[in-house]
Amino acid sequence: MNWFFKIFKLNTATTNLPVSNNLPVSKNINYSSFEKYKKGEKLYQEKKYKEALECYDKALSYGYNSSYGEIFKSRAFCLQKFDFHYDAILDFDKAIELLKTDCHLYYTRAISKCAVLDYLGQYEDLTKAYELAQEDNEQNKDYDKKALGMGYSNGVRGVMWSALSFAKWEFENEVEKLEKIKNCETEENTAYWQRIYDVDRERKLLKRVKTR
Fold it and tell me: CA 20 to 30 Å from 171, out of 26, 65, 185, 197?
């Protein structure tokens, strides 16, 4: 699913960038935290993700909290770069609370949910992303331009539909595996297939997910 992420890479750290003190930020923000946030955004655009992540962490520890959710959005993208998917999901949750109409956020949270093998959550997020992609607004028009530029004739809606279709297949495949375990005729077979299932999940998680 990361192929789709490339379409929106310019939006991960540039949307509503507070490049001056005249732009809206939290009333309780202190200057040090604001400077750390701005530095983090600059570092992200330079693809210095480790340094950017450190700046976002410090900005939040100093009391920065964007009322538009941008810092959580940006830090979540950084966390994904290092496969810290559980932490990324928590930040996407916060960003979505504040930026509820951004289809891209639901899509990118779905990437992390897929990584942690939450196939139902992935499917639900992409269903919402596809729903939001139907709306006629400036944000989606910008996404459409990027998607069309990469050859997707239906713009962001077509890309979301492709991602949703794949997520539906993954979810149905997961349900099929669980049904197979549930419908085993003997306890011995149930234990065998459950063990195979658990080992496969553990292997995938070790490969896909890291902890901070």
Answer: 185
55: Cβ contacts below 8 Å, ≥ 6 apart: 36, 37, 39, 40, 43
Report the C-alpha gap between 164 and 102 in whole angstroms: 16
CA dist., res. 95 & res. 75, Å (int)? 10
Cα–chain-centroid distance for residue 48?
19
Q: What is the pTM of this model?
A: 0.85
pLDDT at 6: 52
Do 114 and 95 contact (CB within 8 A), yes or no?
Answer: no
Percent of the chain with pLDDT over 70: 86
Burial class (CB in 10 A: 0-12, 13-18, 19+), 75: buried
Cα(81)–Cα(76) distance, rounded to whole angstroms?
Answer: 9
pLDDT at residue 19 greater than cutoff 50: no
Contact in structure between 78 and 46 (CB atoms under 8 Å): no
Burial of 83 (0-12, 13-18, 19+ CB in 10 A): middle
Domain boundaries, the chain: 2-16+68-170
Average pLDDT over residues 156-184: 96
User: Which run of H or of E encompasses 108?
Assistant: helix 103-115
- CATH for the stretch 2-16+68-170: 1.25.40.10
User: Helix 85-98 to helix 70-81 angle, to the nearest 10 degrees?
Assistant: 160
